[in-house]
Design a protein that fits this description.
Structural class: alpha/beta
Distance between the termini: 50 Å
Helix content: 25-40%
CATH superfamily of the largest domain: P-loop containing nucleotide triphosphate hydrolases
Order of helices and strands: EEEHEEEHHHEHEHEEH
Bound molecules: adenosine-5'-diphosphate, magnesium ion
Number of strands: 10
CATH topology of the largest domain: Rossmann fold
Strand order of the largest sheet: 6-7-8-3-9-10
Strand content: 15-25%
Largest sheet: 6 strands, mixed
Number of helices: 7
Shape: globular
Length: 271
């Protein structure tokens, strides 16, 4: 069976499951280790941690982007949709801090780019065009498909990158600090859009961030990563009603709890 034919028999089974995972770019130099996590369908998990603790490396491994052929080291197991993951999967879409749009293609063709690549399921041209338009509309760019990257603001370009991910109808969206380069107001809009998209498109998401407030506003669950090698040191289920901007007391209490846990991680690292 090819990866594109992977069935989803149990709708409550985890989308992604990692057990005892470790990874390093060279043997004996673990960047992260003993990472076990799972992501349920339609769940938004935020992976929070300071710079250099291995968040991006973990996301790349979870997205199947890190190959072990180049001398990298790993251990543990990783399953996506109930199958061992051994490379990028068409149902897992990635979004990075930089939108990485192709400057010679308009927004519409950037979103469609790659939809007919070998790893994607066979799609007719009509269905492909339909998916692209739906994805552009979902991110609020229904009328902007003909614009080129040079004509887009940073926020619009990142919306195109989100649309490109959505057009793959992912069951998991893996996003690595996707809003870090945006101004505060655009970032707040994008955080809201992200939650809305995950709910409406029936996908799950792993959002890497170093922003505590972003994790609290967006996540159903927060995993705190820290230490060298990086490990998941704490976890919170965020039971705060949305929109969370309206729940200042609960947000503040959780922020303080996370800050004190971060403090503990730093002290443990220095000891
Ligand atoms: N391609 C790579 N080759 C070798 N080392 C890397 C590579 N990418 C990241 N690292 C190292 O892995 C560690 C974790 O980096 P990274 O995963 O980017 O952390 P974070 O995203 O939390 O800032 C750092 O020490 C970094 O220098
Ligand atoms: Mg990073």
């Amino acid at each position: 069976m090819t990866q594109t034919e992977t069935p989803r028999s149990d709708s409550s089974a985890p989308v992604l499951q990692a057990r005892g995972m470790g990874f390093g770019y060279a043997p004996g130099q673990a960047v992260f280790d003993e990472v076990s996590l799972q992501i349920a369908p339609r769940e938004i998990v935020c992976l929070l941690g300071g710079s250099g603790c291995g968040k991006s490396s973990l996301l790349r491994v979870l997205g199947g982007l890190e190959s072990l052929d180049g001398g990298a080291w790993s251990r543990g197991t990783l399953q996506f949709l109930g199958q061992p993951l051994n490379g990028p999967h068409p149902r897992a879409a990635l979004v990075f801090q930089q939108p990485s749009l192709l400057p010679w293609l308009d927004a519409r063709r950037n979103v469609g780019f790659g939809l007919d690549f070998a790893r994607q399921p066979d799609l007719s041209a009509g269905l492909r065009a339909q998916r692209v338009e739906q994805a552009l509309q979902a991110v609020g760019l229904g009328g902007s498909g003909a614009l080129y990257p040079s004509q887009l603001s940073g926020g619009m370009a990142q919306r195109v990158a989100l649309a490109r991910a959505l057009a793959r109808e992912p069951q998991l969206l893996l996003a690595d600090e996707p809003f870090s380069a945006l101004d505060a107001i655009t970032r707040a809009e994008m955080q809201e859009l992200m939650v809305d998209l995950v709910h409406r498109w029936n996908t799950a998401a792993l959002l890497v961030t170093h922003d505590i407030d972003e994790a609290i506003l967006v996540g159903d669950r927060i995993l705190l990563m820290g230490g060298r090698p990086g490990r998941i040191v704490r976890e919170w289920r965020v039971d705060i009603a949305r929109p969370r901007e309206d729940q200042a007391a609960a947000v503040t209490a959780l922020r303080l709890d996370i800050l004190s846990a971060l403090h503990g991680v730093r002290h443990a690292a220095q000891a």
